[in-house]
Amino acid sequence: MNAPMAANDLNLMKFGIGQPVPRQEDPTLLRGEGRYTDDMNLPNQAWCVMVRSQVAHGVIKGIDTAEAKTMPGVLGVWTGADLANYGPLKTLIPVPNRDGTPMKMPVRPSLATDKVRFVGDPVAFVVAETMAEAKDAAEAVVVDIDQLPAVTDAREATKPGAPVVFDDAPGNICVDYLYGDSAKVAEAFATAAHVTKLRLVSNRIVVCAMEPRSAVADYDAKTDRYTLRAGNQGAFGLKHQMADLLKIKPNQMRILTGNVGGSFGMKGSPYPEYAGLFHASKILGRPVKWTDDRSGAFLSDQHGRDHDFDAELALDKDGKFLAVRLIGFANVGGYLANVGPLMGSMGVTRNLAAIYRTPLIEVATKVAFTNTSPVGAYRGAGRPEANYFMERLIDTAAREMGIDKVEMRKRNHIKPEEMPFKTASGTTYDSGEFTTLLDKALKFADVAGFEARKAESKARGKLRGLGIGDYLEVTAPPMKEMGGIRFEPNGDVTIITGTLDYGQGHWSAFAQVLTEKLGIPFQKIKLIQGDSDLLIAGGGTGGSKSIMASGAAIVEASDQVIDKGKQIAGVVLEASAADIEFQLGRFTIVGTDRGIGIMELAERLRTGMKLPEGVPDTLDVNHVHEAAPSAFPNGAHVAEVEIDPDTGWVEVVKYTMVNDFGTVINPLLVEGQSHGGVVQGIGQALFEHVVYSEDGQILTGSFTDYALPRASDTPSFRMDYHSVPAKTNVLGAKGCGEAGCAGSLPSVMNAISDALGGKHINMPATPERVWEALHS
């Protein structure tokens, strides 16, 4: 007869690793009780409104603030000259030129002082008693700008005679990037049996986070400390960047973050507004708050994507890949954003090999300044683009060579027995079963029944196409991460981490890891992540690395808790620490049933038990995980679309995915992350596109003109796993946050091409473009 399960056993079964536990954040958020930055209001708070350039390019001749300063409620009006003593906004990841010289990094002050370089470039700000008064005064500020010709397209920006964005960046080149051996690649193309060529454009995207950017700055003269309340992706990193911007010591800066309504990379760094807020707070002796509206967000938030490549794939007579080459342009906008030129250069390079045995890779990118909003990281930051480029080349090559598109992929898959596999991109894959996964996805998607579904669509006057996105992405590189565990006076246990949740659901996933490791009741676990004063390290959230970083930090911190607990339990149980073992939340003497639970032990410590010298007096741990190596999530997405040939309207009617995310901590959260990424990919593929006029005015500056996908534009998703645990982290996890985009961009666009009989169109596949392709 089986013994009854202990409470800890039941707790682990329900809330341990691998269980679909609902997000702990949801009840609060669904009741409307979330606390976002704009919900935060401090006593005696003033309000800030930015004055932005209404032209894309021009010389500032003067800024008249006289009338604004006299208006009701106005406390001050400041321009770039007033902020001259603060540091510039910096890019975090410099990319070298092909000759090894550093890229061009023009200084960006918080407010433009000489020229404006995009519509929305901030030139001044007003602070008043109320938001309405600040808005009225901002409209009274007169900015005299001598308008210059503008350029908005990266390819055009590099041509002779194009308007010059920065005088010290000839040809508007930020960086002339090259990866690969050009001579060997050229030889491979010269001897290839077949070469496929496509011009592939990754269209510019507005991030459209649910919560616009907002910040409250508060300078305390008594302590000489600065506190910024703002949505971000990591309080520890933002603390150091803000200290650098304000030219103060890091311990003078505190970042406080509540709920964050989405970011996708856009809120990962300081913005121009922040220095001005502190400048005003310091002068006025009171907190200053700024909240952007949606129109301002369209203009001033970092945009995403915007790459334009001539892509080529060289193959032998059997369809084996010999080399892939991308030569093209990446747009960084009017200034360098947080990660600057990373996406269209190193980001694309590291992911271009994907899951294929591609011997040679060349990526040559001219990263260009233009008179547009700065371009920053956006869900995947080069990874979805690279997979899109590769998968479109493969589908086109298969059609041109008369080889089945599935067979061509399988012929070039890296095999499990070849692991670890070093790619031509310089990465080394530790695990993956790519052919097995693809076969599982094709069966799961009922590809065998596609012809019948196609015939049924045809009977209704629709064209049906099927597309595959066989992807792999390289997650963000190693960073230090904190794993703090604190046993609270009320009996709760708090995890402290330097990652930051802006929609992912960290609380539940991290608690599951701790429950699995220490047997602590799930409901007792809390999470702190948005207070930089409590952090000793933190790589922030981005690059699909959070569970590898924070998860490993929690595991390692838990081991330290266990070591401390054995010493303390040895005193309680009157045994040597060497004779104490820990299992399922209990410390016991080896070979006996005498023991004490970890929560009871924590309670004993709270009541002040006496301990011998040298024995720890707390179970609390502040630990720093030194590195979380990149992982390689991969999968196969299969999309089916229907096209109305009379209108060109595209509808995604069936979508199936099988992913390898290694160890899945919480399938429910992973499914939600995957759905979100796929929808954003569908949005880019079919709807979203930032359009500028010739003089740099944004023509898609609101939801009236900029189309986002709605629930009615997506089918029900079918999702399954083929998990091969990673060998590079203690949990075996691979990350999942951005994989949906990496699989959906190629699968949807390949499906559209299939429905069009192999014709190629670039994203977004709007009805106009599709109709033209059908009738050209």
Automatic annotation (TrEMBL):
GO molecular function: iron ion binding; oxidoreductase activity
Keyword Oxidoreductase annotated: yes
Source organism superkingdom: Bacteria
SUPFAM superfamilies recorded: CO dehydrogenase molybdoprotein N-domain-like (SSF54665), Molybdenum cofactor-binding domain (SSF56003)
Keywords noted in UniProt: Molybdenum, Oxidoreductase
InterPro entries named in the record: Ald_Oxase/Xan_DH_a/b, Ald_Oxase/Xan_DH_a/b_sf, Ald_Oxase/xanthine_DH-like, AldOxase/xan_DH_MoCoBD1, AldOxase/xan_DH_MoCoBD2, AldOxase/xan_DH_Mopterin-bd_sf
Designated name of the protein: Carbon monoxide dehydrogenase
Organism of this sequence: Reyranella soli
